[in-house]
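Review box. Two proteins, two foldings.
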Amino acid sequence: MLKRSAFTMIELIFVIVIMGIIGKFGVEFLAQAYRDFIFSKVNHELQANSGAAVELIAARLKNRIKDSVIARTGVPPAAPVAIANADGTAASYTVLEWVGYDYEGFQGRLNTNPNWSGIIDLNNTNAGINMLVSPGTDTNATNALISDLSDTNSSIVDAALFFVGANSDIQTGYGWDGNLTAINTQDGAMHPISNLAGQADRFLPFVGDFSGTDVYEYYKLAWTAYAIVYEPGANNLGTLRLYWNYQPWKDRNGDGNGDQFNSAGIPVKNAIIMENVSTFQFTAIGSIMKIQVCTKSTVIDGVNDGAGYSLCKEKTVF
């Protein structure tokens, strides 16, 4: 006779207890692992987005005319504040603006000289109040590159010279306040220029002449200003947007004022840098700038958890 053994009651109870323990803690372990994965994914996304944002801003700021950087508490006509007097960590500045010199043109094209040399020949007998000579400069190539970079919306006649070492009033010298009086009387920091057909190394004044202008040997050529604007949105989160292809030293829409990034009737370009931005801060110590971008995600795995997950990135720009 064959005997078949079965589980005793004690063994069954023991198995049930073990399975209960495994079920309770196993599910919690898997749930925690899943949450860790989701937070890791969100952290990676926020790290990548905020890192890309500060790197893009820093790359543009690197080629700034350092004396030109201003802050605003709102879009123009909000008054410009010199960055040296603005502490973005303590005030509600939502706009950062500067004039960037034509870095691409100064680098030149592959295996060629720079499009503009950055040097004025002060002793050239052809130079005078109506013309400046810049040896090694090719205004035709400069014009073509500006046209390419602006999608044919700007040219060399929209450009201006900044003389390195010249005194300038940041409030009036760049056109930030919309008043072109100082610039048109050659007292500004930016000196609008034109080119001379057939002589690519010559600069002509766009308005009047260069009389009364402190002309220095070294200059930088600029054709656009830049603005980083924080646009508030829902849930205390906003959007960072970059504006370019506007010239505060020019009046392209004919309203009598220097152009701003929010001026109507001019081909200003813009692009979103980052969304879901909780904080955009900046400060300056001398010519050194520090920027900070903070982002926040309140949605985890498609569900708004209310608490959110925040992350900040910083960058120092010399």
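Next protein.
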Amino acid sequence: MTRRGAVLFAAMCVIWGVPYLMIRVAVRELAPVTLVFFRTAIGAALLVPFAAWRTELRPLVARWWPLLAYTVIEVVIPWILLARAETKLTSSLTGLLIAAVPLVGAVVVALTGSRERQGRRRWLGLLVGIGGVAALVGLDVGQVDALAVAEVGGVAVCYAIGPIILSRRLNDVPALGVVAASLLIAAVLYAPFAAFRWPSSMPSAHVVESVLGLAIVCTALAFLVFFALIGEVGPVRATVITYVNPAVAAVLGVAVLSEHLSAGMLVGFALVLAGSVLATGRGPEPVAES
């Protein structure tokens, strides 16, 4: 990896490890639907003009149906579920649960017609990962809200399906245009709901900072850096940030919000990480029989 690639990789590990902390702070005063509206609207306001200037929106007109499906799966559903879950879960636990995304992705790919052979290593990885998720919530079952955990599970499923739609239905259109258009569509969809949950008073400075950080740094800037990372190291190696982000989220939750890092969370994350590596890594090629 080049020095530029290493810098971009490190930046993405931090940028996409921070949102869980900011969401946790923001939902203390804002309704989840209002938070998601602010995040998507501000992000769209920053990216749509840039994408239009680069003429990356026009090719999407003929692909509106997969674009809408991608938007609903990747943004509309998971972001509201994530915000709702963090009203009851710590940012640390939420981030660690999201580490299961590669596991869910491996299952989704297997169930949607992938021609790749599902070897013993992959199934072992899935079993280890499932054990890790069970440890994350099971060893602290008395302190975990079951509905909130289910909501994070829904986020993981959406985050696993979204890239598959992108790669199979939108792989021939500009990626920046897809992101900008998705944020705009999501903001329009959430606007009427957010209007009914508008804050009655000005949120605190910490909440305003969190909202702006989510929209500007963790959404608009993050996608630009991520595209640069893909161009530098390729799409496969770029996804390795998925293994690092949850650890960043956990460290920030403990350091900034004084959240408790339990034994179950430590054991569970280690198992999820190991399972993800096994389930998504490439095993040895089969030897042809003579």
